[in-house]
Amino acid sequence: MSAKKIKFISVCLLAMFSLSACSPFKPDPRDGMTMGVPLNYKLYSKNSRELGKWWEAFENRELNKLVEEAVIADFDVRIAWAKLRQLRATAVKSRADLYPKLDGKASYTDSMSGNDGTEGKKGSTSTDVHKLGLAASYEIDFWGKIEAESASGELDFLVSREDVNTAAMTVASEVVKRWLEIQLQRRKKVILQKQLETNETYLELIELRFRNSLATALDVYQQREAVARTKALIPPVESREQILLHELAHLLGRPAGSVAVLTADFPVMPKMPGLGIPLDLLANRPDVRAAGLKLQSSDWAVTAARADRLPTVSLSAEAALSSAQLANIFSGWMTSLAASVVGPIFDGFARKAEVERTRAVVDERLLNYKEAVYTAFKEVQDSLVQEKWQREYIKARKNQLEAAKINLSEAGSRYIQGLDDYLPVLNALVSVQTLEISIAEDEMNLFDYRVSLYRALGGSWTDSLVATDELKPESEDEKVIEAAGNFEKKIVPAKEGI
Fold first, then answer.
1. For residues 415 and 409, is the Cβ–Cβ distance under 8 A?
2. DSSP state for residue 213 in the 8-state scheme
3. CA–CA separation, 454 vs 224, rounded Å?
C-alpha cells in the first residue's frame, strides 16, 4: 500500500473518530424538577435531618444486632444484590461496542484430487492448506447511538443499586416493627395474667358472699364468665408472638423457630427528628432516586432509537497468513481493509415506531417519577399526622381509663352496700381491663408511626452496605468493570437524583 493511500486513510479515520464524538440527539439534562412539592412541612421541625442508623435511638443492643444482621441476610436484600450483579455485567456489555473488536482466526483444510488414467496419467494429489490471522471490526458511532445505549445500561445499573438500598431500608423498618410487636404481645400477656388473677379474686369473694347469702347465683355465673373470657384472650396472644418470631426469623434469612428475643420494656420514644424540607426526599429516598434514574435511562433510549434511523459506518480489517504446506506457512500472507455504510431506506416504519415507543416510555417514567415524589411526601405527612393525633388519642384513652377505674371503685362500693346488683361492677371491670389492653396497643401504634416516619424520610446509611462474599463478583469481573469506567461517577451521582 502506497504512502499516499495510508495518509488518506489516516485522515479519513481521524475525521470519522472526531465526528463520532458528537451526539446530535443527546438528551437535555433534567435539572430542578420539583414537581410542585411544597417547600415546607406543616408539622414539626424543618431543621436538617441527620437520621443515620435511626433504630439505634431506641437504645436496645439486641435490636441493633437484629437489624444489622437483617440488612445483610434478608432474602429480598440478597436478591437485590444478585440483580445488581447482573446489571453490572450488562452495563459492561453495553459499553463493549464503543471499542474495536479483534478476533483470532485459524483454519485447516485437507483436500485430495485424483486421475483415473484416461489421459495417460493415473494417481492422486493431496493438498494441505493452513490459515492463521486476525480480524478487526469497528462501528463508528457517528450519531451517538452506541454511547446512548451504553449510558442507558449504566443508568439501569444505578437503578439496581437503589433497589438494594430500598430493600435494606424496608427490612430495617420491618425488623424494628416485629421486635416492638413481640414486646407488645408479651406486655399484653402480663396484663392479661394480672387481670386473670384479679378476676379470680373477685370470683372467690363473690362465691364467699354467695355462701353467706349475700350474692346471687347469677353474680357467680357472671364472674365465672369473666374469668373464662380473660383466659380465652391469652392463647391468641401466645400464637401471635410465635408468628412474629417466625416472621422475624424469615427477615433474618433463617428458618422459622430459630430466633429468640429477650423481653424488654417499650423504649423511650426518641425526640422528633429534623425533617429538612420536602425536596430533601429527592436525595434521601432511594425509590425516588431510582425513579429519576429510570427516567434518565429512558431519555437515552430515545437518543439511541433516533440515532438508529440514520446510516451506520463500519470498518473492518483482516490480516492472514496462509500456505499450502506447513513448512511454508509464513511465506504467504494477505491483508485487507474495508469500510461499509448501511442506511435504512424502508423498514416498514419499524424504527420510527421504536422512537415513538421510547418516547412513550419517557412519558410513563416521568409520571412514575412524579408519583414517587408525591408518594414520598404523602408518607412523611401521613406519619406526622398519625403521630400527632395518636399522642392525643393515648392521652384521652388514659383519662378514660382513670375514669373507668373510679367507676369500678364506686360500683364495687355500691354492690358491697347492697345498693346495686353485680352487673354494674362487672361492666366496669370489663371496661377497665379492655382499656388496659387497648392502651398498650395504642402505644405500640405510636412507635409504629415513628418507624414509618423514619422509613419515609429515607437516609444515606445504606450507602455503606456491601454484598456478602457469595454475591460479590469474581475478581476478574471487577477488573473488567474498573476498565470500563466508574459508572456511578461517570453518569450521575446517585444522591442527586434528577
1. no
2. T
3. 46
Distance of alpha carbon 23 from alpha carbon 148, whole angstroms: 9
Task: Say if CB 151 and CB 491 are below 8 A apart.
Answer: yes
479 within some domain: yes
Boundaries of domain holding 358: 40-100+144-311+350-462+472-496
Q: What are the respective helix, strand and coil percentages of the chain, to the nearest 5?
A: 65, 10, 25
Name the nearest CA neighbour of 69 among 203, 220, 171: 171
If one counts the domains in the chain, the total is 1
Q: What is the mean pLDDT of the chain?
A: 81
pLDDT at 454 exceeding the cut of 70: yes
373, three cell numbers: 415524589
Whichever domain contains 446, its CATH number is 1.20.1600.10
Residues 6+ apart with CB under 8 A from 178: 244, 247, 248, 251
Instruction: Give pLDDT tens digits for 405-421.
Output: 999 999 999 988 888 88
Pairing of strands 332-342, 122-140: unpaired
Task: Give the span between the Cα atoms of 209 and 92, in whole angstroms.
Answer: 86
Whether 180 maps to a domain, the answer reads yes
pLDDT value, residue 306: 80
The alpha-helical segments, DSSP class H, found in 212-309 are 217-251, 281-284, 286-307
Q: Which residues contact 29 (CB under 8 A, 6 or more apart)?
A: none
Local structure of 199: helix, strand or coil: helix
Does residue 119 sit within a domain? Answer: no
Q: Distances from the Cα of 76 to the Cαs of 16, 71, 82, 178, 478, in angstroms?
A: 47, 9, 10, 17, 24
What confidence tens digit (pLDDT) does each residue in 339-362 have?
Answer: 666 667 777 787 788 788 888 988
Within a 10 A sphere around the Cβ of 203, how many other Cβ atoms?
A: 17
> Does residue 124 lie in a domain region?
no
